[in-house]
């Protein structure tokens, strides 16, 4: 008798477990089915009592629908939890809502300690997000990556392109002008090509830095130029040379690559070439910081023996020893202007080059 009772309880437990497992599986299947059966335009149209085309016009933001009909459709959208199919919408509008930010540098340069790149990427992302667009970061620091980037853009994956840090040998500015896609350059292109761009007054900013050194009584002013295949490197060297030529002083030049290490190397070279120099203008702050390090190693006091001026006004310039005099270049504002110029181009608005002003920020290094 006891054995039959125990077998009965065991059978009951097995039956209960089986029924519970069946219920769980049925619930999961039902949930999966409901997730797969997402509301359609037709379902929204039936709920709102309007045509499918009317619902399509409402969800795509077209203004050809009366306010009361729009309210009915949006109420049905909210009740059913309808989510527009972005891929289908893009097929109709021929828009991807994505914009490429193409940086013509290798990854180790973009993700180095140079804050310019992170500032541009962050400012572009925030401004595009406000406009309902997605930024796609593409690095083009080699011939192979140039080809990949060109192929990606030619494939219609983005609605527009922003070019950053192009060099003289960069084929992308010319190649992209052949494609039916709006393109804007961050900085004047290094090659002769008809592209709208946003830049800062590199020549004027450098000239103001050198005039400041002359006004402080410096007589043998050297420069650490940036890469001469970049517009920034060329224009800042031009501003330096123009002022010295007008004041009948000779140029003393070393060339870096916008990195801290190259600034230190260039500063040591300048001290060897002209030990009597009493000032140096570096074409960016990172090279100026490297120059400060080399001067300290050489036993030269800043600014007593050698005054130093940089360019860009990065955050670190305020915390060097001594704090660095520099030319303020508004990279974030320049990026926002570039994004807005591109958004205008994407809506067929005319676009002219824009040159943004600079300002000399005087600190203890000069």
**Tally of distinct domains:** 3
- Sheet with most strands: 6 strands, parallel
In CATH terms, what is the fold-level topology of the largest domain?
A: Rossmann fold
Number of strands: 12
Helix content: 40-55%
Strand arrangement in the largest pleated sheet: 2-1-3-4-5-11
Please write the string of helix (H) and strand (E) elements.
HHHHHEHHEHEHEEHEHEHEHEEHEE
Low-confidence blocks of residues: 1-36, 86-93
By CATH, the architecture of the largest domain is named: 3-Layer(aba) Sandwich
Mean pLDDT: 86
Work out the strand percent: 5-15%
CATH evolutionary superfamily of the largest domain: Response regulator
Secondary structure category: alpha/beta
- What shape does the CA trace take? elongated
- What is the CATH domain class of the largest domain? Alpha Beta
- The total of helices stands at 14
Radius of gyration from CA coordinates: 31 Å
Ends distance:
104 Å
List the main descriptive attributes of the protein structure presented here.
434 Repressor (Amino-terminal Domain); six-stranded parallel β-sheet; disordered N terminus; elongated; LacI family transcriptional regulator; transcription; 3 domains; Peripla_BP_I; transcription regulation; Rossmann fold; 14 helices; alpha/beta; six-stranded mixed β-sheet; 366 residues
Structural description of this entry:
The protein is α/β, with parallel strands linked by helices and 366 residues long. The protein has 3 domains: 2-92, 434 Repressor (Amino-terminal Domain) (Orthogonal Bundle), CATH 1.10.260; 98-200 and 333-357, Rossmann fold; 202-330, 3-Layer(aba) Sandwich (Rossmann fold), CATH 3.40.50.2300. The protein has helices at 2-36, 41-48, 52-59, 67-80, 86-93, 107-110, 115-130, 143-154, 172-177, 202-215, 231-246, 260-273, 285-297, 331-346, and strands spanning 98-103, 134-139, 160-164, 183-186, 197-200, 221-225, 252-255, 279-282, 307-312, 325-328, 354-356, 359-361. It starts with a helix and ends in a 5-residue tail after the last strand.
